[in-house]
From TrEMBL:
This is HdeD family acid-resistance protein. Keywords: Membrane, Transmembrane, Transmembrane helix. GO terms for cellular component: plasma membrane. InterPro entries: Acid_resist_chaperone_HdeD (IPR052712), DUF308_memb (IPR005325). The keyword Transcription regulation does not apply. It comes from Microvirga tunisiensis. It comes from the Bacteria. The chain crosses the membrane at residues 25-47, 53-73, 80-98, 104-126, 138-157, 163-185. It holds the Pfam family DUF308.
Length: 190
């Protein structure tokens, strides 16, 4: 007895709806806690930025150790040396982040600047490519915002590296928490 993909998707959606209804209070609490954590990350961006870098440092070190342990028993696998170099680099970066979180903040900020610039340029090119389509200007505007944001961050680099990561973390926590809390609230009201 085979079930169609649409029927399986509907069964999955219904199970998710039931789970959200059953645990809506916990989802609401989770959403509110995420919003509070996001507000704290924005209010204290230096602390939250540093905490992210330290956590990332520990994750790189611990995952590197675990990968090294599994690689010890597999010395004859293809590309052993490449995997070993990758593990060593991950652990080195982790130790550098732990030793000097400020440099880690600068590194991550530089990567974000490059990301915003590249994404902005690609959106501008895409917008100009689809120019006859309706509302192509929104895509162009989005690309321009990415480019301007990267330039503003670059010009203010020593200062932005201190608060940027914490601010972005806070914004993400608030958006995720708001979505979860709104969903739970709507389920509780229905």
């Amino acid at each position: 007895m085979a079930i169609s993909l649409d029927a399986a998707a509907e069964v999955f959606r219904e199970a998710m709806r039931n789970a959200v209804k059953r645990y809506s209070l916990w989802y609401l609490i989770e959403g509110l806690l995420l919003i509070a954590a996001g507000v704290l990350a924005i209010v204290y961006p230096i602390f939250s930025s540093t905490a992210v870098i330290v956590l990332l440092g520990w994750l790189l070190v611990i995952s590197g150790l675990l990968q090294a342990l599994s690689l010890i028993s597999a010395r004859h696998v293809p590309h052993f040396w490449l995997q070993l170099i990758s593990i060593c680099l991950a652990m080195l970066i982790g130790f550098l982040f732990l030793r000097d979180p400020e440099q880690g903040l600068t590194t991550i900020t530089l990567l974000l600047i490059v990301f915003f610039m590249m994404e902005g340029i690609s959106k501008v090119v895409f917008a100009l490519t689809i120019r006859p389509f309706p509302n192509w200007g929104w895509v162009l505007g989005s690309g321009m915002v990415g480019i301007v944001l990267s330039l503003v961050l670059w010009v203010n680099l020593p200062v932005t590296s201190v608060w940027l990561l914490g601010f972005l973390l806070g914004m993400n926590l608030i958006s995720v928490g708001s979505a979860i809390a709104y969903l739970a609230w709507q389920v509780r009201m229905s």
